[in-house]
Amino acid sequence: MHLIIFSNILTPRIKYIFNFIFKDILKAEIEFTGNSQYFLQSEQVKISYGDQPLGDELFFKSTALLFSNKLVEIKPKTISFGEYQAPFPVEQSALPFDVFAASFFMVSRYEEYLHQKNTEEEFKPSKSYQHKWKVLDKPVIDEWALMIKSIIKKKHPAFKFHEKKFQHQPTINFNILPGLPEGFLNRTKFVFSALFKKENNYLSSKFDRLTGVGISNEQVLEDVNKIFAAKKNTPLYFVDFPEVPMDYIKINGINQHLHSQSVGLLRPCASDKQKMTEIKEGLIKLRKIHPVAIPLTSQQLDVLKFPICYLNILNSGITADYSMGYSNVPGFRAGTCTPFNWYDLQLEKVTPLVVNSYCLTDYILQYLTNESATKTLHQYIDAVKVVNGTFYSSWSLRSLSDHPKYKKLKLLFIEMLNYAGN
Fold it and tell me: Where is the DUF7033 domain (predicted)?
């Protein structure tokens, strides 16, 4: 037995969000139809989406968003729903708001497209609708999906959903620093480039070493791998390369520690053709330290712009991205803790790029007291566990070192692993 979904018009948006909620989150088999006669005669569990029900099926009243194929300025109305505001209110429906339009609005980052269309400024989480609606701190789409599941089970107790389990995936990022090249002329050129290129971290790393703040990537990688040796899962590493020839980059110790690990490219967001070249050069360097880094993954912790960043990532052959989150504010940027295929609102189509959303970073935790940071960690892990989602967090490799400056963060990282049950 499966679910049969009826709508008079089956738009790409409708198919996308229904597939995400029912197949990806709830793990149910679904079938779409626009044929009312076929729908009414079917013996499957029936759900309709439109202006009015066809019979006694589960009916979800629709709003206009999913029937459109254009990116238009909208300011969603809301209705009080428990402790928060839910957008796209409707009447005489299984839920008092259009849950599918609301979910699509969040997961597609509709408001961020509009923001980038109108200004070059960075999109701030405090300006987001999710913040205004008080749902940023919860994987609200997954919670709504469980409500839909409960409604279905109430009407059709015999219907079975496939099991979905909680998962935990920490991500760890670091910069590979260049070393001085051989030969006086090469060294002179290199030092001058380090003075004038802000991308080159060589001089600042030297200063860190002199002041005792410097961190050995090789040593920390070895320590982290020991921590994970007794765990069920492994971290996903993201590496940023300096803009210097590969000959200047010291990788011997690092590639040994990354040999059996999953590795992706850090900071690949590209907003122009020059940056596209940098992505491709970064991928070439990544393959030199990790030849089997496929499928290619990426993470962007700086400004993530829609749709240009994801378009250029896709055009570079990257198939999975871990950039969806706010580096300085905890929360579920796309409203979900379930991986999803990115929907391009400009082309109105589903893309092959799989987006994995993080909800916490070490940057956020470092400014909290120990008690507050631990409480925040537990809160977000619990929120994801309740809906059987995937808990993603982002950490800098230096935060996991034994340097006194990062002692609190390393202890929090270990607490996270233990509390998540991995």
Answer: 95-173
